[in-house]
Structure formats: structure tokens, C-alpha cells
């Protein structure tokens, strides 16, 4: 996907109108918001949300990132900040999409593997049952992998998070249900494009079966859970944005080509 600043402003106006149209209840008890943004000379991203409304329901908001797009790990420390919100880091870095990324400790240090601009800033965390997956960007596209038999020689950007939820089109065995009412994540679809998503749920969190159905609707074959709860937040320039309960020190950012 490539688009200019002028297109982004046009897309912002279009998405607001489209959002009002699609927010009507087309199917009882189900709200579907899907915006496909197109232009003649540039390809555009697909974003939207779907799910059911109600006290016990879940809704997923997503944005598809073509594999030709530039995605970077964004550390707030590189912008002279301890922490920031998704909208703040997008505006500072000039990214068009930002989502919270890795878990972090009480000193705001991200946990696990961290690669940016081809440089390994932190090593792989090999223990435990949480940081079980890697999301990486290479010159050829995106991939999600487990920690075993991992090759990162071609990785330009990478983070470690977890748990890994979906592999080869199926739920990973032994993964526990997600209890947080807000949960961020990333998946890779059959075409090798990435999908950033954020799930908002009712009082009992999100069932893995429901989440599996959403992955299949998005054609995802691999999926990785990112930090959740109050950390979950996503900013989409000209589209739907979801604020977190507090600021965080690390994000994934998407950049439009010129």
C-alpha cells in the first residue's frame, strides 16, 4: 500500500461517511463495519471491525498491512519519552498506523527479543509460556514464528510477545483463554500480509473459539498475542482508533510510501 498525505486526508473524510453507513444493523445483533479504501493510482489498506454488541460479546477492530509496506518497531525512548500513547507515537514518527507491541517491566523496558533497522537490541527470551512467538518484518514480507528453530538473519524489525495463538490455520494447543477485556494482536494472512487487530470483550474476555473464527474470516494462518488490558491501543490515521488506559514504551508503526 502506498498513499500520499493528500490521499490520507481524502480517506479520512471517506471513512467517516462510510463508517456512518455501515454502522447500521444489517444483521440482527451483529454490527459490521468494513471500509475498503481504493484509489486509481495507489493501492489502499482495508480496515474495519466486526462482532456482536452486548454485555457478553466481543468485537474485533483490524487493519490489513500489505507486505510491501514499511513496518518499524517504535521505542518511545528514541523520541525522548518514557512512554506514549499510540496517537502520540504515530504523530511523532509520522506513522499512519500504530499498535502497542511487546510486554514491558516496571522500568518500561520491553521484554524479549527486539530487532530494529536490522540491529538486535535485545536477545531472545527462551523461558516461560508467555513470550512464545516472534513477529518479524523482512524485505520479502512478514512472518510469525515460534522460538524453536528460529532464523532471524533476514529480519529488519522483530519483537517477541505471546502467547502464539494460531499456527498453520489452527489454534495452538495448550493456549489458555484470554481473560483481558481488551487484547491487541497481529496475524499474517495467506498472502503474507499482516493484520493488526484489537479485541474488546464483555466481562468474561474472549473465547479462543470466537477468536479462531475471526482469524479465518481475515484469512490469517498465523497469529500472535501482544500486550493486553490497559496497554491495548491502536491508532489508524483517517480511520477508527482505540485509546488505551495508559501509555506504553513500545509500538509497531506502519509507514506510507511516497
Describe the structure.
The structure is a single chain. The protein is mainly beta. The protein has one domain (54-253). Helix content is 14%, strand content 37%. The strands form three sheets. Strands 1-2-3-14-13-15-11-12 form an eight-stranded antiparallel β-sheet. The radius of gyration is 17 Å and the shape is globular. It starts with a helix and ends with a strand.
- By DSSP (H or I, 4+ residues per run), the number of helices equals 3
Spell out the helices and strands N to C.
HEEEEHEEEEEEEEEEHEEE
Catalogue the unreliable spans: 1-45
Distance between the termini: 10 Å
Strand order within the widest sheet? 1-2-3-14-13-15-11-12
- Mean pLDDT across residues: 81
Number of domains: 1
Radius of gyration, taken over Cα atoms and rounded to an integer in Å: 17 Å
Number of strands: 17
What is shown here, in short?
This protein is mostly beta strands and 258 residues long.
Keywords for this entry:
eight-stranded antiparallel β-sheet, 17 strands, 258 residues, mainly beta, five-stranded antiparallel β-sheet, globular, single chain
How does the SSE layout of this entry go?
Blueprint: H1 5-22, E1 30-36, E2 46-52, E3 58-65, E4 70-75, H2 86-93, E5 97-100, E6 114-116, E7 119-122, E8 133-138, E9 141-146, E10 157-161, E11 164-167, E12 170-171, E13 182-189, E14 194-201, H3 208-217, E15 220-228, E16 234-236, E17 250-255
Antiparallel strand pairs: 1-2, 2-3, 3-14, 4-17, 5-16, 5-17, 6-7, 6-10, 8-9, 8-10, 11-12, 11-15, 13-14, 13-15
Amino acid at each position: 500500500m502506498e498513499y500520499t498525505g493528500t490521499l490520507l486526508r481524502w480517506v479520512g473524510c471517506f471513512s467517516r461517511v462510510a463508517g456512518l453507513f455501515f454502522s447500521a444493523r444489517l444483521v440482527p445483533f451483529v454490527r459490521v463495519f468494513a471500509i475498503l479504501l481504493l484509489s486509481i493510482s495507489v493501492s489502499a489498506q482495508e480496515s474495519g471491525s466486526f462482532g456482536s454488541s452486548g454485555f457478553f460479546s466481543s468485537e474485533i477492530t483490524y487493519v490489513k498491512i500489505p507486505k510491501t509496506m514499511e513496518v518499524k518497531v517504535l521505542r518511545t525512548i528514541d523520541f525522548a519519552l518514557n512512554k506514549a500513547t499510540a496517537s502520540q507515537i504515530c504523530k511523532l514518527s509520522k506513522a499512519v498506523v500504530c499498535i502497542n507491541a511487546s510486554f514491558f517491566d516496571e522500568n518500561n523496558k520491553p521484554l524479549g527479543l527486539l530487532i530494529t533497522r536490522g540491529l538486535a537490541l535485545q536477545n531472545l527470551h527462551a523461558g516461560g509460556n508467555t513470550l512464545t512467538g516472534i513477529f518479524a518484518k523482512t524485505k520479502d514480507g512478514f512472518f510469525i514464528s515460534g522460538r524453536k528453530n528460529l532464523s532471524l538473519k533476514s529480519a529488519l524489525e522483530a519483537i517477541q510477545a505471546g502467547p502464539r495463538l494460531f499456527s498453520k490455520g489452527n489454534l495452538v494447543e495448550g493456549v489458555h483463554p484470554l481473560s483481558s477485556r481488551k487484547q491487541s494482536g497481529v496475524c499474517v494472512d495467506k498472502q503474507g500480509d499482516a493484520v493488526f487487530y484489537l479485541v474488546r470483550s464483555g466481562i468474561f474476555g474472549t473465547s479462543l473459539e470466537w477468536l479462531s473464527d475471526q482469524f479465518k474470516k481475515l484469512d490469517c494462518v498465523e497469529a500472535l498475542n501482544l500486550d493486553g488490558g490497559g496497554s491495548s491501543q491502536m491508532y489508524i490515521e483517517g480511520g477508527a482508533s482505540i485509546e488505551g488506559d495508559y501509555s506504553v514504551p513500545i509500538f509497531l508503526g506502519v509507514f506510507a510510501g511516497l
